[in-house]
Specification:
The chain is an alpha+beta fold and about 400 residues long. It contains 15 helices and 19 strands. The structure holds flavin-adenine dinucleotide.
Length: about 400
């Protein structure tokens, strides 16, 4: 996106990328439907960037959801707003959009050099590892868009962070965002229920200040814990709470649309001769994984547990989160170049002429199209910064 803005301003632009082809993470995002933005009102949209919303606001306002939709239209790709307000290209795929985009960039004169890994600077010049050895490239300005540190197999490894720190560029360590959380499940749960969706379900959490959070959605029980959009949305809050205070307990409401009284009544009305698991499946239509969770929490005491306790457990099921899942498997990462390392044009204060954009900057957001929107918007902003910097004299 930065290349697009720069070439529109008549500049000569080269793109260097470590991978054999461009946009691999963008393509991967397309496998999940390419949720490119969100139709929320811009003020609410910006809340999703938490503390970073202050400095990201002018950039995202300048290239918001409707600007992204017109930009896609200019590439021949229509979009639609899904029932949750999320915006997708009509076919929910990234490949046609990426293909049209790369074609237009190349036609406009942008030159792509693949398998060129940026490894630092030699003086002001760019130092690159290439299949034919090390190259040094001088340029009037450069935009770095090195990505975050999740899914490193797609090209963004975050391995530049220490080098940046040594050069005096303020950086924050990479942490998983939109990530899974670790739970110690029994062998039985792992063998029988790993991969099972837990839905519908509400996640309830009370933080150290007594503030409570509740949201409904879907989870998946994995071998090592919990995954899915519902917990991803809480990942920043839970990750920081675990870092500060150790393992955190969340509660699941396994029957979010029924009140506690209603659950209790239904259980009481079930024929007494039925076993507890039969009562749960017939009276409450509970899925196998939810029944197993209840059985596990009663630890073999299921037959003795009163229905009152079972009803309470169904509405308020405690799960201890031990830590985050691996950074490499997270959808995105927090951390990277801090806003304080940059001027208002996104130029590095200690490296005049070098601009940083996208997920390599220290901001995070939940899934919902906010990640791609801020990546695209900061890239446009940084490129406009290059233009103003080059025109300064
Ligand atoms: C599975 C998955 C699904 C996702 N789904 C969505 C979604 O639906 N909606 C959404 O908004 N976001 C989604 N995201 C997040 C989104 O894809 C990223 O936030 C976005 O791609 C970040 O863009 P970027 O250009 O900053 O970094 P990247 O897309 O990571 O691109 C960085 C580029 O820099 C190159 N590079 C890195 N280091 C070097 C180096 N040293 N030298 C040369 N080149 C280098 C990489 O090869 C890569 O091509 C998803 C992410 C994943 C992993």
């Amino acid at each position: 996106m930065a290349a697009e803005v720069l070439v529109e301003h008549g500049l000569s632009v080269s793109v260097y990328d470590a991978m054999p082809s461009a946009g691999r993470k963008f393509l991967q995002a397309g496998r999940g439907g390419l949720n490119i933005s969100h139709s929320l009102h811009i003020d609410d949209f910006l809340h999703n960037y938490n503390e970073a919303s202050t400095w990201l606001a002018p950039m995202v306002r300048a290239f918001d959801a409707s600007a992204i939709q017109s930009w896609m239209r200019s590439l021949g790709i229509d979009s639609f707003v899904g029932s949750s307000g999320r915006i997708f290209p009509t076919e929910k795929k990234a490949a046609p959009l990426l293909r049209a985009w790369l074609h237009r960039l190349k036609q406009s004169g942008v030159v792509f050099h693949m398998k060129h890994r940026f490894v630092g600077w030699q003086g002001q010049a760019l130092s690159l590892d290439t299949p034919t050895g090390q190259k040094t490239i001088a340029s009037d300005a450069m935009v770095l868009a090195l990505g975050g540190a999740s899914w490193p197999q797609l090209g963004s490894k975050g391995d530049w962070l220490d080098m940046f720190a040594r050069l005096g560029i303020e950086v924050a360590p990479f942490r998983p965002a939109n990530c899974s959380f670790n739970v110690v499940w029994s062998e039985y749960m792992q063998q029988q229920h790993a991969g099972s969706p837990i839905k519908p379900v509400a996640l309830v959490y009370e933080d150290a200040h007594g503030q409570s959070y509740r949201r409904q959605g879907e989870l998946m029980l994995s071998l090592s814990g919990l995954e899915g959009g519902l917990i991803y949305g809480y990942s920043a809050l839970l990750r920081e709470a675990i870092a500060d205070n150790g393992p955190q307990t969340i509660h699941l409401d396994l029957l979010p649309s029924l009140s506690l009284d209603h659950v209790r009544q239904k259980l009481m009305q079930a024929p007494q001769r039925l076993s507890l698991s039969n009562k749960l499946t017939t009276a409450l239509k509970l899925s196998a994984v939810k029944v197993a969770l209840i059985q596990e929490s009663l630890k073999g005491e299921a037959s003795k547990a009163s229905l009152k306790i079972v009803a309470e457990r169904l509405k308020h099921y405690p799960i201890q989160l031990m830590g985050t899942g691996p950074l490499a498997e997270a959808i995105s990462s927090a951390g990277g170049v801090k806003a304080t390392a940059l001027d208002e044009r996104l130029m590095l204060k200690v490296k005049p002429g070098v601009f940083c954009v996208g997920e390599m900057l220290d901001w995070e957001a939940p899934t919902g199209g906010y990640l791609l929107t801020a990546s695209l918007a900061t890239a446009r902003w940084g490129a406009q910064g290059v233009v103003s910097w080059l025109n300064r004299v």
